[in-house]
Amino acid sequence: MKKITWAFLLLLFITYSGRAQDKELAPVTGTVAITNITINPKPGEIIENGTVLVRDGLIEAVGKNIQIPPGARILKADSLHLYPGFILGHSHVGIKMPENKEDRNAKVEDPGNPPNELAGITPERKVYQYLDMTDKSVSEWREAGFTVAQTSPKGGMLPGTGSMILLGGNPENPILKAETALYSTFDGARRMYPATILGVMAHYRQLYRQADQSMEYSIAFDKDPSGRKRPTKNRTLEAFYPVIKNQVPVFFKTEEILEAQRAMILQKDLGFDLVLTELKEGWDLVSDVKTSNSKVQFSLDMPKWEEKKKDSSKTEDTSKEQIALEGRRQEFLKKYYSQMAEYAAAGIPFSFSGLEVKPKDVQKNLQKIVENGLSTDAALAALTTTPARQAGLDKSIGTVEKGKLANLLISNKPYFEKDARIKYVMIEGKLYEYDLKESKKPDAEVLDIVSGDWTFEAETPAGTMTGTITILKDEGGDFTGTIYNTITGQENELRNIQLSADVLSFEYSVTFQSQNLDIEASLTISGESFDGYMEIAGSGESFPVEGSKVPAKRN
Amino acid sequence: MRKHIIFIMILQFVAVSVWAQTKKGEVLIKNATVITITDGTRENTDVYIKDGKIAGIGKDLSASSNATVVDATGQYVMPGIIDAHSHIALDAVNEATSPVTAQVWVGDALDPFDVSIYRALAGGVTISHSMHGSANAIGGQNETIKHRWGTVKMDELRMEGAPRTIKFALGENPTRVHGTGNNIVPRTRMGVEQVFRRAFSEAKEYLEKWDEYNANKNKRGYKGMAPEYDLQKEVIADILRGEIIVHCHSYRADEILMLMDVFKDYGIKKLVFQHVNEGFKVAPEIAEFGAMASVFADWWAYKFEVYYSTAYNAAILTKNGVTTSINSDSGELIRHLFHEAAKTQKYGDLTDDEALKLITLNPAKQLGIDDRVGSLEVGKDGDVVIFKNHPLSIYAVPQMTFVDGVKYFDINEDQDDMRIYVDPSEEIDVMRSRTEHEKCMANAEWFLTN
Known about the structure:
Chain B: Keywords: Hydrolase. Chain B: This is Amidohydrolase. The complex is a heterodimer. Chain A is α+β, with helices and mostly antiparallel strands. Chain A has three domains: 1-85 and 398-437, Urease, subunit C, domain 1 (Roll), CATH 2.30.40; 89-307 and 317-396, TIM Barrel, CATH 3.20.20.140; 444-549, Lipocalin. Chain A is 24% helix and 32% strand. In chain A, strands 1, 2, 3, 4, 5, 6, 7, 16, 17 and 18 form a ten-stranded mixed beta sheet that branches. In chain A, strands 22-21-20-19-27-26-25-24-23 form a nine-stranded antiparallel beta sheet. In chain A, strands 8-9-10-11-12-13-14-15 form an eight-stranded mixed beta sheet. In chain A, helix 4 runs parallel beside helix 7 (257-270) and helix 9 (320-345) packs across helix 10. The N and C termini of chain A lie far apart (65 Å). Chain B is of the alpha/beta class. Chain B has a domain at 80-219 and 230-374 and 437-448: Metal-dependent hydrolases (TIM Barrel), CATH 3.20.20. Chain B has 13 helices and 17 strands. In chain B, strands 1, 2, 3, 4, 5, 15, 16 and 17 form an eight-stranded mixed beta sheet that branches. Chain B has a six-stranded mixed beta sheet with strand order 8-10-11-12-13-14. In chain B, strands 6-7-9 form a three-stranded mixed beta sheet. Chain B is globular and about 70 Å long. In chain B, 53% of the residues are buried. The model of chain B is unreliable at 9-19 (pLDDT under 50). Chains A and B meet through helix 4, helix 7 and helix 9 of A and helix 1 of B.
């Protein structure tokens, strides 16, 4: 009985939360001791075989030789690695925006002067009005090791005000800081002012300066209302007041280099605190960012890293021109992953944003960023201390230190190492456990039948698509394959073919209406037929697919 | 607040140049036929550019060891060509949502990645006037850009210190977009006139209110409210103050006369007509007003209001004393403006200098930058182009193009892949199905189709 640890007992108490993919471990006591673990309390520091003591959602002690109070739950974490829970600099996690389909096709009488709601100008909206902690994005980000995220509303040029929220713990009280960002984009309105980047830039100046003016007047009025005209209430303009007072920064969505420059032009004109969020093309902006004193959040949504395979069958018809084009493509692909190291070298602190990335791709992308020159300490800072400081919350989150919120991440190997998996996440003392089992082995009968030709039919937004999928198993036991479809008439190579239990999954890319689409398929095989879905990566749009095996030709 | 606004304007239009330190080059072009535009054409002459400015024009000039030396024996050197009407290097051209959008500025939408910049350089063009489109009666403010190809910085494209200009439009475009498209004023040419008159009157009132407020605000016990800040009216007020040059899209003689009448009523003097295909009918009136004209060499009949014109237009305007230029309005025509200028020798017998002024000094005057560019003179910017054969010859081919003494085009070093940035997910499609080079009504299409 002695050998049965508390940790094992804890496993018996698991409660399964219906929506979440994690196991939420019910608290037996408010005090938990995580022992014999490698602790990374903050970037650049390591405590081997240490203990973290958590009491009532706060970190009580960190280090070696910590006295464990009687009654504490002990989580023996030998050979595991502990980090401060990650902080996502910016996202749309956990929100459900009201859908208003009428708005999309709304036609206004005077497109030059539309109502603000239709024109995408709603800075007065607060994200916490739209929070839904049961949304699956919350558990997905938590599973990826993130304990806190800034989240903002979406839609239009001024979608609203963002908050910092906890991605677990007490779902009744997720808000860490209510107003942390005035979120802004360069998205124009549909067929009304401001429709283009020209209108958005001009209107931003107009609103900001109008707000500046009305704030000044209302201050003067409050001081001495006698003899003054009563100021007009305008909730759109009032939403700018905390920004004008430099209490809340503007988070501008600036994926492309020109958008980032435009945000800096507005910042220079108007003087607000600027965070360039979801930045993708930042490698040429190091000096501009420094001079303008703006803050940076790199997008975790990155172009697919394709390892160049030496494919002998294709070299024959590869012209010099193609080699040069491919060389430039590789050169630029690398820039997306190596720019963070340049910013770190220039001493510019940055964090990460996840407005578009899928949480399950985050670790892979971070590891590639580290492979491309960013130190693991700098990467950890971008995930913990920097976003905590950017949000003005560095006293309560971002490191594993006494007095801070018990937001922790525990992995089986150092997080940035290949094959490292997250085992536990703790948020304000609440522990979530993840199953580290490898993906299931393919079923024997499925393994038998999968190789060969399959016909399929899919209901895509562009109409019914039919075609053929060919799966081949090579000598090493790996799968290769192609997919042919009637809509584009292209045959495309399959990537990342996986077989798990009875599910065949793969990815491929098609060019449709000169757009490159990445498609992810997941097909459940049953006998000689399958059904499942294909999803256009990043769009959230998926469509059903059915198919059946083409009988093999007999020789 | 007032101080604030002025400060912002200074920032917007002057200070941007402070943080964008553009490249300046040093080059000695030897032994060319030098077409100065303002001081004759000289054989076997050198042009020396130092720190981006023309430092000497003469025989056997010497240069510092830093200078790149180009032997231009048998070749022609002329000032960089200036295009007074273009829509290249822009991410958006029309904010077509309202008949008056003076508050918008294409300087916010600059796109240094547009390969049209390089194509223009290959046609010897060093400066273009990137304009708002013609969907609105009062469109947006324009930007005069230097073709510093290869930069990724919007600010490095701007011609630092160039005066502000704004786009106006008459006739079918604004009436189609707003009248026919949205059923609002202007539906007719009469409506277009009223749009101008109303905008100017309102801006005048706005100005007066601010003047009154500013005069009183520091008086003791004054408790008035400042007029509500309005960026659009600020800009139109600056037109009334003479701080912005108006470039107006126009075709018919009657509407050209109408606009000059409106401007006289409001005391506005800085006016350049664009296209102005019926300018030849009212050339003396345009000259008397002191307006200028920027035309196509021989392009008309592409819609009803421009049914009637002549290839003699540029020559007639010139002979009547109107400062005239020939423009491209197109990413294709911009590559051979020197041919366009040469057409005035076939249609109108202009001299070499008169013809070349149409694409150099005259557009410079129309943009208010003739003290800096448009001719080869010591102290002017080192914007030059070297031609094989005389630029007005049908065999003329630009060889090298320099901006501020920096070489941005060399026919012998032309690369296949001119992309500045490469999108790793882009599939390269060598077949181009459609080339769109006329952008005057870009971003306005949807108003025309509903």
